[in-house]
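MarR family transcriptional regulator structure dump, as promised
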Amino acid sequence: MEDADVTAVRQFNRFYTQTIGALDARFLGTEASLPEARLLFEIATREPVTASVLQDALGMDAGYLSRLVARFEKRGWIVRVRRDDDARARDLRLTEAGRDAFATIDRRQSDAVGDLLGMVEGQARRDLVEALTRARLLLDPASGGAFVVRPFRAGEPALIAARQSVLYRDSHGWGRDVEVIESEVTAAFLRNFNPEREQCWVAEIDGVMAGAVFVTDEGDDIARLRLLHVEPFARRRGIGDALVGHCVDFARTKGYRALVLWTQTVLEAARRIYAAHGFDCVETAMHERFGMPLQGETWQRKLAA
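structure tokens r here:
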């Protein structure tokens, strides 16, 4: 029996290929098929470009690519131009007819996608776009652009707590006890939020949440860093480092004399980030707050004399 995850992906593939007309001989009523339209897009956005570069970019069989290129030449869409730096190589360039063909396909595809998005509105549309972007990032993390860090928006603190609960369950086997603690932290943050003394930052890539962190006011001019996390698809980009840097800068700017945090000895990646930002481990103690024996650590970063 087929795995349920495989079934779900195949079901979506069948739906989407039919929706975009991938099986149509004439894509969007043009002279091109979908593979031809994709190749034309790559030439238009990369020209001058060699066939070998296109083959690598598309993962296309060399023989099939050669036949498509020959078809484009026959239609008068492209020309081959000798390269100045390599007499054996030929660049592909669009002709005026090729640019017209590309413009028609590109316009019709934009219109078709616009019509598809027009079927959903408001938050549903935002959810759709985010879900599709997340799917791309999960399957190809390197395809994401540069991350940005911004203040939180409505609904995100609870989402952060829920997301961390899932991640810690999968990575360390921590269950409901962690979720209770994180939910209480975020609820208290929202209930008592003072933007002059506290903040939550969200890192995002192409509009998708990639990590987050909180700073809360502990009183006596001490701030606390809480709930730092980075999504697995977004790691090794420096996001954790940037989020902690925002916390340190904020606490210093607001006149706190120290920034403290509580973490676990097993969270080695986070501990390395804290150490790099000048935090020192000042106390360790065993506990079972997460439903199992763990060594907790209190770290401190002094900010003022």
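The mean pLDDT is 94.
lmk if u need the other ones
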